[in-house]
Amino acid sequence: SETQGQNFLQEIIEEDKKTGKHGGRVHTRFPPEPNGYLHIGHAKSICLNFGLAQQYGGKCNLRLDDTNPLTEDTDYVQSIERDVKWLGFDWAGKYFASDYFDKLYDFAVELIKQGKAYVCSLTADEISQYRGDFNTPGRDSPYRNRSVEENLDLFSRMKAGEFPDGAHTLRAKIDMTSPNPVLRDPPIYRIRHAHHHNTGDKWCIYPLYDFAHCLSDSIEGITHSICTLEFENRRVLYDWIVDNLIKGGRPYQYEFARLKLTYTVMSKRKLLQLVTEKLVSGWDDPRMLTISGLRRRGCTPVALRDFATRIGVSKTDSWIDMSVLELCIREDLNEHAPRAMAVLKPLKVVIENYPEGKTEQLDVANHPQKAELGTRQVPFSRELYIEADDFMETPPKGFFRLSPGKEVRLRSAYFIKCESVIKDDKGNVVELRCTYDPATRGGDSPDGRKVKGTLHWVPASAPTAEVRLYDRLFSAEQPDKDKDKDFKQFLNPNSLEVIRDARVEPMLADAAAESRFQFERLGYFYVDPKDSQPGKPVFNRTVTLKDSWAK
Ligand code: ATP
Ligand code: MG
Ligand code: MG
Fold it and tell me: What CDD domains does this protein's entry cite (predicted)?
């Protein structure tokens, strides 16, 4: 059919365009609460909202949904802006819900005048008792029938700061008998004597999400207000408020399934715990599935957008495996990252038949498929390092790397053969004595002799560098599955391995912060922008070359 391959939101928008529902306009918004850093779930929402606007020639706003003064902060606002831009999007307008506090107050007054809101003096606990739940019917608040005049008076005095926190709330007067508890006179304003990051001390009453969100959408001329499935049963409230207060064109709410990813927690509250309890180095710790953590890990915006496209948009919850994300990252980096050589656990090799004091420069391709990425020179001389794991004194069958009497290829260099082994007092292998075949320069033998193993290597003069290897932050697939257990008990104790004395080929000593490489056979690496210093890069492993978790 015409709509095949489209998600349900694209179908809705195309239908709306046909019927002229919003005068042909498409205007979405991404509405984070600035109470933490954005995570990969937000990336899905960003790609969706900005993506739909792009696709249909519309607009997308960035709205900071800052109606709770206790948890919000200007630092968070800045991190959100940076992350959205880094992902590759630009907003039509940037707004704060708090910019609308005056308008929202007027809307609340209007609702009181219509007899559709009242000041309730029950405590928060009493309100929830009176409201009941899906199994328990609601009961009217004793304050439900206050007169419009009394409500107007009390509400203006709430605003003026005459009452302490919790003394009163403003509630929408809807239907205490509704089967949907959301409609049982939901609170829409509460008293909070607290400093707000944007409005300072101007206000001591703050609108609640259900009231602020739909009206902010209306004020901005949003057409399609896209949120996650938990809000489905609140759509009737969204509609009730908008229908009572907005004349003319109005926004509509649509719900999609939030991203659920294995081996991580996603809620900002939990991510904040990891940060404040110093279980990670910060919001941008490369193990965190925050956008800033992914960026510092070396993930690219292209890979993250590709991930959002591949997981798609649906109306039913499902789990996405972490390996999907890793695949997207690997594919992008494979195409673009220049190759380099580094040795994580160096084992010295001395080539006995190579002239002492001689150094030759070998030309090495920067990318096997992309000649346009050029070549670089890697010095080769009598002493070098290979990976300790690439040698075994008594190898099992099928071990194609180096062992006594065996010959292997050094990447882009020569064939070498292990002649003897030098050990320390404790019997550890500390050096290999090898010979090389000068006829194999570049990596092939003119006599057609084959070797099975190709090893990466660096010259013995190679500079040292710090390399950080990351594993998943949690060892459980769903760390917060069990509400009675602390998700932090599932932290993976081996999620970070720091190697301070890796050896890297000479050009890597000058690698620019934020550059990316494939270290041959080891994975993709990113030059850490925070901890690297000139001439002293720190390399974060973004992802391995293969999925080491695949069974
Ligand atoms: P959290 O519980 O992680 O704090 P939130 O929904 O409270 O998430 P907001 O800042 O309110 O965070 O979210 C901004 C937007 O991002 C909302 O529209 C929300 O629906 C969307 N969003 C949040 N988490 C996800 C997710 N896991 N998948 C898709 N969209 C998400
Ligand atoms: Mg929210
Ligand atoms: Mg939240």
Answer: GlnRS_core
